[in-house]
Design a protein that fits this description.
Length: about 550
Amino acid sequence: MKLIEGDPKLAGGTATERATPLRSYDLFIGGKDVPGDGWVYTTSAASLLEDVFTSISLKRALEKDPDDAASQHRYVVGRCAVATTAHIDESLQAAADAAREWARVPLERRLRLGQLFRETLQANQDEFLELLVAESHPVKLARWELSCLYQLYGQESVNWYAEQMHKEFIHGNRRLIVRRQPDGVVCFNPPQNAAGPSAALAVLPLMAGNAVVVRAPRSIPLSTMYLCRELIAPLLEEVGAPPGVLNALCSNPKQTTDRWIESPLVNDIFFVGGSEEGLKLQERCIANGKKPILELAGNDSIVVWKDADLDAAVEAILECFYGSGQICMVPNCVVVHPDVADELIAKIKEQIVDVKPGYPDQEDVLLSPVRRAEKFFALQKQALELGAELISGGGRMEVDGTPSDTGVFLQPTVLRVNGLATSRETDMVKHETFFPLLPVIVPEAATDLELLDGFIEFVNTNDYGLRNSLWAKSEEVIDQFVQRIVNGGLLKVNDSHIGFLPYLPSHGGTGLTGGVFGEANYPMLKTSHVQGVSVATGIRPRQAVFDGA
């Protein structure tokens, strides 16, 4: 990383002039910093809330002239070099050259990356959080994102990965091995809404023995380049990885994925994004002999049974609004037993006031700005026309929570939908909405057995399949859910919907969430393949064939 120093006279900073050096990242290819073709600039989240016109003007001025005095403005956080097609091809060749050598490194040494990365992340947590806040992550949610990484790279999880990657058995005069071997070159496309924390998943394919190319999204590249260049790359040197095992570049999405798909050097494409785009990419990957690893949209359900701890359930339900619903793994709808529906809705309405907008560095802020909200209002309109009832919210608001027709925040919005069988006639129930919009579905009165069957059928027939939750005390109800829910990569019972745990997957799912190969996503396992080995002593082949027959 380069630090571009400003005028020493500006060290104290003013209302417009920055007081710290500007972060500057070249492309990282083959273990070297490589100049790109121009720059993209990151301006702080505060600029979007205080003066969006100045924020846009600064970026445009700097992209035309990197030496413009605008680089010293306090809104400008950093810049990343932009890759050309030639750079993309160079990164793939560097990865392919390194992959064979890295795959030969013993698994034990590669697994050290997990512990080292966790320790490095902890040591640099404040700096990483600062960048995430600058990229509009509320600090409270940024800490939650880091909690995912601490679980993924915790000792319990790393030990479990080791067991899955290599297992040996003694069978008579044979040593039998079931192991996973790396796929080769893995190209990783993180999402725009959480690029840096998602890019940290790339350490897992590296631990599996793959070489990795990470694309930092042009709209939000800074935290991704920081993570790859300053945290992960030095660790690879420490464990003796060859140059080119990790490559990171900021580039155009279509230009990059086209090159990845066309290149004979690429084995896997790990894509995080929308379902429609991801499923089209899946088809192209298969046609070109690549393994598609998809982490797409979620449309998660929370089911609340009549004996549930409603106060605790409401805490989990309100996770729907975290980040203004712009997190794939937050719950998107609630299905509640009709006996407790009114009480649950009243508690939601009472506690929703704690979900607040504000600047992302404020500790109590859980909402993020939403720029394009036309669909939010269209979804509400359709639902109301189909008979839904508005319980809370429904409009825009300013950064201080004041209702406003021009505010950049959306109010946490709750609608009651009567009838389970017809609920998916509304798009806000049928599809992921990515807004702070929560339908609470109240089924028609029926026997408990009929309701339980209906709830399970509703969850299992969801076109998406990321996470599902149940709140209930009845052991019978819990057992039925655990046995019969087949949809989704994760089922949580009486727990936070979005919380992370060791051993269990943090991502992955079925249907429109993971594509035709969708399941719980363990990136170490997804970017490797199973291989069986037999090492025999004193075995006669003819005897081995016919004695068994």
